[in-house]
Amino acid sequence: MVSVKGVSDQFAILPIRMPPVPSFPQPAIHEVRIRRNAPKIPTPNDSRSLFLKNVPTDSTEPHFRAVFADLVGAGRFETIVFDDEAKTALPVDPAHATKVIALARKRKRAEVEMEERAREEEVMRLPEIWTRRLHRSSGTAIVLLADEKSAQLVLKAIAKVQKTKKYPVWGNNLADEVPPLGSPWVSAHLQLCRVDKTSTQTAVHAFFNAFNRKEKDSVELAKKLRNEPDEDGFVTVTRGGRAAPASRNEAEEAKQRMVDKQERRKSEMKDFYRFQLRERRKQEQFALLKRFQEDRRKVDAMREKRGKFRPET
């Protein structure tokens, strides 16, 4: 049933006409709720992105590209990210897999390492055994548009659709070929489950190589933190040797203390010599005198503009 109101809980309601299928041979209306994307941590693309709720379970990027092209024309839809899509190729991360990045590392070297990590993650991916993924019911997604104006046009077009009742049809005018569901989808899955042994073995080896590298980094971090004294200058020693941090949170806190200590040493070295201390004090006095003179000029300008200055009593 289509809602009468166009906005519910600050969401604009976009009705989509679902065509009949063999399992349900009657047309239906599916409501997708859309609003401006406002995450807890802002990003540079928030002004041109929209938050979607209650997306259909068989949603794909071509489906929503066709829907948005029907609303505001082609060329404004950029991409869509569903909430249940895999975010990383290494879902299992060692508990203590943290890496200390040296502050003096050159940017070029960091970029090369990032490219190597990207290639490594590409090799780690197991062969896909589904031609098309289904999403969970009442799922969410983030749509990225070309610019902020496109996001405004989409919201205006949704309000217009509510009045004209000309709802976009799901699956019409698909620009890209989308694999069908039903028995062909299950049949293709059964075929893809017989994956190539060599490619699967390569992906598994790459996964464990990355896992072992992360564990090695965590051991190196633990060794470095064992030799880090506390605030009083002491190092905790146990029967088995110097103890490493008991948890990842303690390791992060110890690492932060180490960075703060290095910054404090740098600031102390700035005023190590007596002439450095005199120069810093002179600079502070000069800045204070300069601000005083600027404030006095502002007061004189106010007096000239308003006449005799009379403070309120």
Written description of the protein model:
Pfam families: RRM_Rrp7, RRP7. Belongs to the RRP7 family. One of its GO terms (biological process) is ribosomal small subunit assembly. This is Ribosomal RNA-processing protein 7. The protein is built from 7 helices and 8 strands. The chain is flat. The chain is an alpha+beta fold. A hairpin with a 2-residue loop joins strand 7 and strand 8 (about 240). A 6-stranded antiparallel beta sheet has the order 1-2-3-4-6-5, covered by helices on one side. A two-stranded antiparallel ribbon has the order 7-8. It has 3 domains: about 5-85 and about 130-180, Alpha-Beta Plaits (2-Layer Sandwich); about 90-125 and about 195-270, no CATH class; about 270-310.
Q: Please give the number of β-strands.
A: 8
What is the rounded distance between the termini? Answer: 68 Å
Adjacency order of strands in the biggest sheet: 1-2-3-4-6-5
How many strands, which pairing sense, and closed or not: the largest β-sheet?
6 strands, antiparallel
What is the rounded Rg?
Answer: 31 Å
Oligomer: single chain
Integer tally of domains: 3
The helix-strand sequence is EEEEHEHEHHHEEHH
Helix residue percentage: 40-55%
